[in-house]
Each structure stands twice: as C-alpha cells, then as structure tokens.
TrEMBL record:
Highest taxon, organism lineage: Eukaryota
Transmembrane segments: 89-110, 195-219, 231-251, 263-283, 395-415, 421-443, 455-476, 488-509
Entry keyword Transport: yes
Organism: Agrocybe chaxingu
Keywords: Membrane, Transmembrane, Transmembrane helix, Transport
SUPFAM superfamilies: MFS general substrate transporter
PANTHER family: HIGH AFFINITY CYSTEINE TRANSPORTER (PTHR43791:SF63), PERMEASE-RELATED (PTHR43791)
GO molecular function, one term: transmembrane transporter activity
Membrane topology: Multi-pass membrane protein
One cellular-component annotation, GO: membrane
Record's subcellular location: Membrane
Name this polypeptide is given: MFS general substrate transporter
Length: 563
C-alpha cells in the first residue's frame, strides 16, 4: 500500500493535500492510484507534490457513514426513515417547547403575555407577585431586563457547548437546571431571590432554540426544516390557548399562605423536570447514533441530507469558520432582522393591558388572549406550509405575512377610540407576522454551511433577538397612554424594515447563486478519501463526498442558497 505512515485509518486528506500548479485542477490523488501505488510511485509523487494530511476530526461526523458508493437512494426508503425520525424526535421537541410556555402564565393571568419561546416574562404588572416579594417598579423592570442580559451573555458559550457536547444531553442538562430554578420562584421572598432565578433562566434558555435549530438541520433536508421549525414553534400558540384556561383555574387554589402563582411554578417546574428526563433518555444527539435507527437506517438518514451540502455536525471548533461568519454580510442582515423584529415583541407584554384599556373585564381579557394563540397557530402553519410547497419563496412569504402587522399598526393609530371592536381586531392582526421570524430561523440554518460557522451565526442572530427584546419595553412610557402612538409608530417602522431586509437577503443570495452558476466547475474537494477497516478486516479506501467535509457555504462553490 506504500508508506503506512501516510495512510493511517484515522487520517484524511482534506485541505489541498496535493498542491498542483493550477489551483483549479483536481488536487486529490485518484482512488486507483492510491490503492495500488508502489514505494517508487509514492516517492515519485512526493517529489512532485506537497502532501498535507489532517485527522478525521476535521470532517463531518457523518463522513464515514456517507462514504463510499451506496448506489442511488430509494425515495420510498428515505421517506420511511424521515417518518421514523419525525415519530421519535418531533413529539419531544414540541413537548419541550410547550413545557416552556406555561411558566410565563403565572404572570400572564395577572395581565402579562408571552413573547418568543413563551418562557417566563416579567414585564407588565403581575401585582400579586410584586406585593408578595415587595418589589418596587424599578426592581420589577430589572427582572425583565436581567433575563435577556443573561440570555445574551451566555448565548455564544451555549452554542459552543452545543457543538462540543452531545446536543440532546446538553439541552437536557439545561432543562433540568431551568426546571429547578422555576420551582425556586415559589420560595423567593424578595428582589435578590427573583433576580438570581431569572438570571439562571436566561442562561439556560440560550441552549433551547439554538439546540433546536441545530437538531433540525442535522435530521432534515432544507425544505423539511422549514416545516419542522414551524411545527415546534407553533407550540407557543397552543400553549396560549390551553394554559390560558389552566392559569385561570389556578386562581381558585386556596392553600393558606401558599399563593396560586407559587403552585403554578411548582407544578410547571415538575412537568419541565419530567420533560428533561425524557430528553436525556429518548432524544438522540445525532442521526449517526440515533438509538431508534439501525446502522443501515443511520446511513440512509445521513445520505438524505446530501442535498443540503451542510453535513450533520463537527465537534471541533474552527476559528477560520468563526471569522468567516463574522465577515459574512448575510450573518449581520439576519441579525438586524432578528433585532428589529423583536423590538415589537414587547407588544406581547403589553397586549393584555392594551386590550383591557378597551373596556373589557379581566376575565374577558384573559379569554380574548386565547385568540392570539389561535392566530399564531394558523398563521405559522399556513406560512411554513406555503414556503415549503413553493420553491424559493421564504422571503416573499415572510414579507407578505408582515403586511397585516403594518395594517394593524395603521388601524390602531387612526381608528376612533370608541371603536373598541375595530381596535381589538387591529391588535390581533399584528400577531400574523410571527411567521416571518419562524421562517428566518429555518432560513438562516439552511443557507449557512460549516458547523462552527453555523453555530456562530445562530449565536449572533439569537443575541440580536435578545437586544431587540431588551430595547423594546423602554418605548412603552406612561406619557404615551392610552393611544400609545409613539410605540405603535416604532413598531410599524420595525416591521417595514424587516420586510425590506428579507427581500434584500433574497436578492443578495440570488445574485450569488447566479455568480456561481457562471463559474467553472471547482474540483478542489472532489477526490477525498478515507481509509477504514472493511468487513473482511482489510483496510479499504472509500471516497467522501464534499457535502460531508464540513465545508462552509463559501468554500463549497457548488453550494446553492435556498431563497
């Protein structure tokens, strides 16, 4: 086989292992030459080429499963595997997302509403909690701010941990800590205690959405990701409906000094802890080791993703990919979209107060809040379904679904104050645009290749989300009530800018696709081989497709962006 030190089974030539004079020519040694070279041939090649070898840690974790010639993929078999994956991971993802939603209802039924991910929000008037813990208005507002500051501070470390450690296990650990902190709310008697548990909640939440984005990209094709992200995200709306009634029921729990909101914290904390245990034992970390798939099925699950050209994952941090993410314009366009789209998200924390100002009773206001959940479910489901059915329509669908938001802002500002029903419907339709943010979460994962680049981009986008949510509440000032013209105008401007950003991203990516279509074929990564021990015990060399080399979307010139 030639020089044994060159071709150890755990080494793989990846980055220009054979440097030819023409960088566009094929720089890799063909399989038949590698497999039958003699000592003399090796020495002759060494005199002509500069050999560079790197460990298999440099490539995708699924490279070995995908390597070699498996023949064409049977569509029926691929569909069967996808359904099996759906059955085993989607329910767990949806349950976890739903488990997060009841937590904020302790504040919701005291005139507070949910925002992104529906985790606990403390931004608008749960009077009983404030009285029980002796909070001043300033302290109470800080409890809302510290959540996002903690989320922001820990977002990048959380993404690094999601790359370094098994995804399912890391999320389960965070969910467990989060559940304990949730229960601990019931024991808090002052600002300091609530401040600590809120900080812990923000720290742990940074792993959930980021982890779900990674999992969706590891198990599903780019078209499938759009639907799956929508499915687990719309659990927010489901929770608004179901837990709206649950929260009303807890108001009737009478146990002496232990108040209803404390019981809700204990109950939902226990439910969340059970979800964490289920995650630990049942949620797979990757399609390469999914417990519910056989070895052959794992290979099919990985090969299904070849069209993504993003691989599955790589457990090693690559500084060059992080730098590429920081220098990529689309990273910051998605971040700007995320920040601007979540400034209006502060409206969700004011919605109950706004609706009650129209003259509705507290009970009516609580029940009318369920309509927000229905709107979110319907709009997200229809939006992601349309985007998945119509090729390259993500930007158009996202922008289109924000038109009702702008219309709602316009009506809220100009309808007569006496027209309570019209104002109520105007507020309701400002929730339609949530679909745009859901599509952006799926889209950013679908147009970013290279695992380190992807986790860096996700961290930047979700950090921008925190910034938007942190800034939004400050525009709701008492001098603007009751019409709140200034906040509503800011919200309308943000939505208009978000529509423009989505279309700009689409134009930019479309032009890049056309530019690559005009380029000559890039064969830089065409002939890459890995050695492994075959069934007969002999060392064999098999080709690894570039889709599983953990290349970034810029390195892989055959990569085409979905629009």
């Amino acid at each position: 086989m030639g020089k044994e030190s060159r071709f150890r089974w755990d080494w793989l030539p990846l980055i220009a292992p054979w440097r030819a004079t023409d960088s566009r020519s094929n720089p890799y040694l063909p399989l038949d030459t590698m497999g039958h070279s003699s000592e003399a041939e090796d020495e002759k090649l060494d005199s002509k080429h500069d050999f560079v070898a790197v460990a298999t840690s440099e490539v995708d974790t699924a490279a070995e499963l995908a390597a070699g010639d498996h023949g064409p993929l049977d569509p029926a078999e691929a569909l069967r595997i996808r359904k099996k994956i759906d059955l085993h991971i989607l329910p767990l993802m949806c349950i976890l997302y739903w488990c997060g939603c009841p937590q904020w209802l302790v504040f919701h039924y005291y005139n507070c509403a949910t925002g992104f991910n529906s985790w606990i929000r403390l931004l608008s008037g749960p009077l009983l909690i404030r009285e029980a813990t002796h909070l001043t208005t300033n302290q109470y507002n800080w409890l809302g701010t510290i959540f996002y500051l903690s989320y922001l501070a820990f977002e990048f470390p959380q993404n690094l941990a999601l790359q370094r450690f098994p995804v399912g296990k890391w999320m389960s650990l965070n969910i467990s800590i989060w559940a304990v902190a949730l229960c601990a709310h019931a024991a808090c008697k002052n600002f300091a205690g609530l401040f600590v548990v809120r900080l812990i909640l923000g720290m742990c939440e940074g792993s959930i959405t980021a982890g779900f984005m990674i999992v969706s990209s590891m198990f599903y094709t780019r078209t499938e990701q759009t639907l799956r992200v929508g499915y687990w995200f719309l659990m927010n709306g489901t929770a608004q409906i179901i837990t709206g009634f649950i929260s009303f029921g807890t108001l009737h729990i009478k146990t002496g000094e232990f108040e209803p909101w404390q019981w809700l914290m204990i109950i939902t904390g226990i439910i969340t802890l059970l979800a964490a245990l289920a995650f630990w034992f049942l949620f797979p970390d990757s399609p390469t080791n999914a417990w519910f798939l056989t070895s052959a099925e794992r290979a099919i699950a990985v090969r299904r993703l070849k069209e993504n050209q993003t691989g599955v994952e790589n457990k090693h941090f690559k500084k060059d990919q992080m730098i590429e993410a920081l220098l990529d314009p689309k990273t910051w366009l998605f971040a700007l979209f995320s920040a601007l789209d979540n400034v209006p998200n502060s409206l969700t924390n004011q919605r109950q107060i706004i609706v009650s100002s129209f003259g509705f009773t507290p009970l009516q206001t609580t029940l009318l809040g369920c309509v927000d959940g229905v709107i979110e479910i319907v709009t997200i489901w229809t939006g992601v379904s349309i985007a998945a059915r119509i090729p390259d329509s993500r930007a158009y669908v996202g922008a289109l679904y924000m038109v009702p938001n702008v219309l709602g802002v316009f009506l809220v500002n100009f309808l007569p104050w006496e027209n309570k029903i019209g104002l109520l419907f105007s507020v309701w339709i400002t929730g339609v645009g949530t679909t745009g943010f859901v599509l952006s979460l799926a889209w950013v994962s679908s147009v970013t290749a290279g695992h380190t680049k992807r986790i860096t981009t996700n961290a930047i986008m979700l950090s921008a989300y925190c910034i938007g949510n942190s800034a939004g509440p400050f525009m709701w000032q008492s001098q603007y009530r009751p019409r709140n013209h200034v906040p509503w105008i800011i919200i309308g401007i943000c939505y208009a800018c978000c529509m423009a950003i989505l279309l700009i991203i689409r134009v930019m990516l479309s032009r890049e696709n056309k530019r690559r279509d005009r380029e000559p074929l890039d064969e830089t990564y065409e002939d890459v081989y890995i050695e492994r021990v075959g069934k007969d015990g002999e060392v064999e060399k098999v080709k690894v497709d570039k889709e599983f080399l953990d290349l970034t979307d810029r390195q892989n010139r055959e990569y085409r962006y979905v629009l």
